[in-house]
Each structure stands twice: as structure tokens, then as C-alpha cells.
């Protein structure tokens, strides 16, 4: 099972669906592009994960969560698509900037008025109220996930995938740390107090907008709950009633915060009304300095080594990053939070064996009773399954995916178990599991192509060819099925039909993986 890695280029076409126009953002998770929808010329944004195996589940989850919610302060999700083995999510294109860029650009020439920051806060609360009304929590509110439209000036919430990388745990650098906006109950215990954890994150957003600082200057301060500086101690222009709103939203105990978006919005509206009334006789106050973020933990702390690991990664020093991450684990006596970080860095660097060892230790800690959310446990099981597959430890992968199915019996989990079973030689079980997934996801191209693969391994070429063709009926650019059909006809000596399929592979394969396999198979020296 090959890992499909996406790297887009301007003007590249994705099947007959989209033409890429300009890259909007990039991270370890994937890329976001401005694109033109070919069927009607509409401009949209599409998110494309680098790791398609993991990315499809995350993006499908994001699309399922939010596409039914329509609100002017939420970036609309149109749906998801499978295109030539790429899974993409199609979203509303917002011509603007994320709030992080706005806050970092504040200056005397471009001040940020309290009127503007309060308007944005109310818009964010309005969008979040619609999310909460659907019994959903965002879980990752931060400036990077708030877009500001150029034309209207409206703030819109985006990124409902909760795609915070495991390797980011407790590593804060400027504009890179999700944990800076995390409620204490989430940071300390991995538990979310439902909607009031999102309220806390909005309090941090408002604190930063008003002061240009984060409330805590290090993860240690957040974990130990030190007394934060009040906003008016940093910026004397912060109105007293606004300070009260911020501090209440950021109350350490969840029950002392605003209990819903409506009550916080009413308090913010009261602040804004008073400011506008006073603006008749006085200038509207504003902040005129850019945000000053970042921290440097003491060298005795494991956090120091995690920050060092991040720095080494940015410098391209893979070995230095690994050594720093291992030192962090040693300094923390193998604390699960640091094991997560080490495992994530090892996966990122391709050190699969070391990554598996870290996640194995982490899973042991979970099994011994370390408090953990169900989703975190499932993430570790998924990563171990991926690693065991990469290391060709197929029996171990089967055992891990069996645990994943026990934890969450969803089509994705059974699909991964089916693939592991097939790789381990249990073709009958693989076919049985894939058929259960097909019954629930009859439109999933990858299920048909893997059914063809499993039947081929099981010696039933007739069924294999049938499922490959069914996959192509759903997606004419499915590279796996095109290649396998071409390979079959090449092996049985039907070179004409083999050439037809291989030519389609070469035309559709933008990343070159299957093209290389075609050349390797058809080379005279092969």
C-alpha cells in the first residue's frame, strides 16, 4: 500500500473537476488552494491532504460535520470528492486574510480599533453559536482559523477538522501553537467542557486582540495556572468592561465562564454600545503595535528540548530534531505528552521503527489508566497501524486495527483492517470486510479498487477485473484500477489493451508514482 503524497502546481487540473489557481496555505497536514470549478467556472477553495490515507478520514469527518450548517460567519463546505486517488474537500473561497496575519500587521499606520475587534468577536460568536446549536464543538479556535473577508470585513470561522498535529503538543512558537488558545481542562486533562472550552478560546483571542500578547508566556504557566496579567495592565486603553468580559471568558474553572455564546455576545455588545456612545466626544481607542508572541522555556525543562526539536526541524537537521525530542522524553520520565511528540517527529522524519516504539509505549500508558480522550487513543491506534504496515509487520497491524474497530466500528476502521488482513495473506477476511464497507459506502471508489486487489490476490481474476471496472465507472481517473488492469493485460500478453490502460495512467498521473511503476513493468530489462 503506497502512501500517496500530493504536491500541487498552479494551472494543474484535478481530473475534470478543478483547475488549481494559487496556493492559499500549506502545512504538514496538506495544502489549501484557490481553484476554478471546471463545470461552471466558480472560484472555490479546496483542501488536499498530503497523506491521503489519513487525510480522507479527517476531511470526510470535517465535511460531514459542517456542510449542513449555513451561516455568514462560517466558511461554507460544499462537499468532498475523490479525484484520481486524491481526496479533496471543496469549500467557499474567502478572498481575505486570516486573523493571525491581521494581528501581526497592526501598526501606527494600520491600528486595530476596539470597535473592530469587538465586531469580529461578535461575528465569531454568532458563527460559533450556530455550530454549538448543532451539538458540535469547534475545538481548535485560534487566529489562523478565523478568516477576514476583504470586501465585507466579516470574520468567518474555518477548519473544523480538529487537525492539530500530534507533534505540535506543548510546542509553542510564534503563530504555530494551538495550545496557546486551549482551555485549562483540555491542556491538563485532555477533556473538553463542551461549549465553554470554545468560549475560553475566544477569550484568549480577545485578550490577544486587545493587548498584543498571549495570557501565558509558556506552557508551564498554563499547566500550573499562574496568575495572568490583566489586559489593562498591558494596555491601559483597554476599557474596564472589556477586561471584565475577557477575564470571565477565560475563567480557570469552566463553570465560572460565560456558559454559551449568546451570553458572551450580549456582554460584548454592551461594551461596543458604550464605546460608540463615548466616541461622540472622544476618539475611538485602538491598539497600534503588532502582536508580540513566543516564549523561551528554561533549559532544564523538557519543553526546552521540544522547542529545540522544532527549531532543528525548521533548519532541516533531522538528526538534531530527533535527539532533542528523545531528550525531552528522558527529561519528562517518559510522560505520555512527550511520547506523543517524539512519535510525531519520528513519523515526520520517516523513522518508522522509532515512531512505532514511541507509540507502543504511549499505548501501554493509556492501557494502564493514563487519562485520555477516546479520540486520542484512536489516533495512536491509527498511527501504529500505519507504522506496522509500513514496517511490513502485517500481523501486528491486523491486531491494532482490530482494536481500532472495537473502539469505533466505522467503515474507515474496517477498511484499514481489511487492507491489513489482505497484506497478511487473509484474503477471504479482507474481502468480507470490504464488502461490509461497500454496503455502507457504495460510492467509495477506493473500496471497489481494493476489492479488485483482494480478489486478484485470492486468485479470482474475473472478480478482480469486475471490481476494477466498477471503480472506473465511479471515477474514470482511478489510477490504482487503471494500473492494475493494464498490468493484468500486460501479464496475459494482451499488449494492445495493456497499452490503452497504461496511456491513461500516464495522462492522469500528476505525481509520477504510477508512471514510474508502468515504466518499471514495461522496461525490456524488467
If you had to describe this structure to a student in words, what would you say it looks like?
With 526 residues, the protein is α+β, with helices and mostly antiparallel strands. Among the domains are: 13-92, Phosphorylase Kinase, domain 1; 96-287, Transferase(Phosphotransferase), domain 1. Helices cover 54% and strands 10% of the residues. The chain is built from 22 helices and eleven strands. The two termini are 21 Å apart. Residues 161-177 have low confidence and may be disordered.
What secondary-structure arrangement, pairings included, does this model have?
Layout: E1 13-14, E2 18-26, E3 30-37, E4 43-49, H1 52-66, E5 77-83, E6 86-92, E7 96-98, H2 99-104, E8 112-113, H3 114-133, E9 146-149, E10 155-157, H4 184-189, H5 195-211, H6 219-224, H7 231-234, H8 240-249, H9 261-278, E11 286-287, H10 302-315, H11 318-331, H12 336-349, H13 352-367, H14 374-390, H15 394-407, H16 411-423, H17 427-440, H18 445-457, H19 461-474, H20 479-491, H21 495-508, H22 513-522
Antiparallel strand pairs: 1-2, 2-3, 3-4, 4-6, 5-6, 7-9, 8-11, 9-10
Helix pairs in contact: 3-5, 3-9, 5-8, 8-9, 10-11, 11-12, 12-13, 13-14, 14-15, 15-16, 16-17, 17-18, 18-19, 19-20, 20-21, 20-22
GO cellular component, one term: cytoplasm
GO molecular function, one term: protein serine/threonine kinase activity
TPR repeats: 479-512
Amino acid at each position: 500500500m503506497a502512501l500517496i503524497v500530493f504536491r500541487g502546481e498552479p494551472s494543474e487540473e484535478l481530473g475534470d473537476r478543478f483547475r488549481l489557481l494559487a496556493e492559499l496555505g500549506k502545512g504538514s497536514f496538506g495544502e489549501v488552494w484557490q481553484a476554478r470549478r471546471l463545470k461552471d467556472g466558480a472560484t472555490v477553495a479546496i483542501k488536499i491532504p498530503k497523506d491521503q490515507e489519513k487525510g480522507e478520514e479527517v476531511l470526510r469527518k470535517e465535511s460531514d460535520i459542517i456542510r449542513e450548517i449555513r451561516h455568514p460567519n462560517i466558511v461554507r463546505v460544499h462537499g468532498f470528492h475523490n479525484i484520481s486517488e486524491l481526496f479533496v474537500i471543496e469549500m467557499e473561497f474567502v478572498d481575505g486574510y486570516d486573523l493571525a496575519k491581521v494581528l501581526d500587521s497592526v501598526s501606527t499606520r494600520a491600528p486595530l480599533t476596539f470597535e473592530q475587534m469587538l465586531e469580529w468577536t461578535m461575528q465569531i460568536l454568532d458563527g460559533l453559536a450556530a455550530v454549538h446549536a448543532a451539538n458540535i464543538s469547534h475545538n481548535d479556535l485560534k487566529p489562523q482559523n478565523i478568516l477576514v473577508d476583504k470586501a465585507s470585513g466579516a470574520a468567518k470561522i474555518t477548519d473544523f477538522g480538529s487537525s492539530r498535529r500530534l507533534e505540535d503538543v506543548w510546542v509553542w512558537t510564534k503563530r504555530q501553537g494551538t495550545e496557546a488558545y486551549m482551555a485549562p481542562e483540555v491542556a491538563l486533562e485532555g477533556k473538553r467542557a463542551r461549549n465553554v472550552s470554545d468560549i475560553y478560546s475566544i477569550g484568549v483571542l480577545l485578550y490577544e486582540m486587545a493587548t498584543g500578547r498571549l495570557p501565558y508566556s509558556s506552557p508551564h504557566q498554563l499547566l500550573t495556572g499562574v496568575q495572568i496579567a490583566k489586559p489593562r495592565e498591558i494596555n491601559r486603553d483597554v476599557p474596564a468592561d472589556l477586561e471584565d468580559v475577557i477575564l470571565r471568558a477565560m475563567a480557570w474553572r469552566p463553570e465560572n465562564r460565560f456558559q454559551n455564546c449568546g451570553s458572551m455576545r450580549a456582554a460584548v455588545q454592551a461594551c461596543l454600545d458604550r464605546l460608540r456612545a463615548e466616541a461622540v466626544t472622544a476618539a475611538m481607542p485602538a491598539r497600534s503595535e503588532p502582536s508580540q508572541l513566543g516564549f523561551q522555556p528554561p533549559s532544564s525543562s523538557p519543553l526546552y528540548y521540544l522547542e529545540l526539536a522544532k527549531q532543528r526541524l525548521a533548519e532541516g537537521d533531522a538528526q538534531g530534531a530527533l535527539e532533542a525530542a528523545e531528550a525531552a522524553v528522558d527529561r519528562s520520565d517518559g510522560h505520555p505528552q512527550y511520547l506523543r511528540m517524539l512519535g510525531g517527529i519520528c513519523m515526520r522524519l520517516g523513522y518508522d521503527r522509532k515512531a512505532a516504539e514511541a507509540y507502543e509505549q504511549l499505548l501501554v500508558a493509556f492501557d494502564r489508566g493514563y487519562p485520555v480522550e477516546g479520540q486520542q487513543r484512536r489516533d495512536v491506534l491509527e498511527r501504529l497501524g500505519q507504522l506496522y504496515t509500513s514496517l511490513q509487520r502485517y500481523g501486528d497491524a491486523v491486531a491494532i486495527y482490530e482494536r481500532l474497530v472495537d473502539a469505533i466500528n466505522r467503515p474507515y476502521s474496517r477498511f484499514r483492517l481489511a487492507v491489513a488482513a489482505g497484506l497478511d495473506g487473509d484474503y477471504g477476511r479482507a474481502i468480507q470486510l470490504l464488502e461490509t464497507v461497500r454496503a455502507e459506502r457504495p460510492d467509495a471508489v477506493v473500496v471497489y479498487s481494493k476489492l479488485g486487489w483482494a480478489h486478484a490476490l485470492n486468485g479470482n481474476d474475473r472478480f478482480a477485473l469486475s471490481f476494477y471496472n466498477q471503480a472506473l465507472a465511479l471515477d474514470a481517473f482511478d489510477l490504482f484500477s487503471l494500473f492494475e488492469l493494464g498490468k493484468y493485460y500486460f501479464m496475459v500478453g494482451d499488449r494492445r489493451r495493456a497499452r490503452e490502460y497504461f496511456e491513461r495512467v500516464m495522462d492522469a498521473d500528476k505525481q509520477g508514482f504510477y508512471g514510474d511503476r508502468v515504466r518499471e513493468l514495461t522496461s525490456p530489462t524488467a
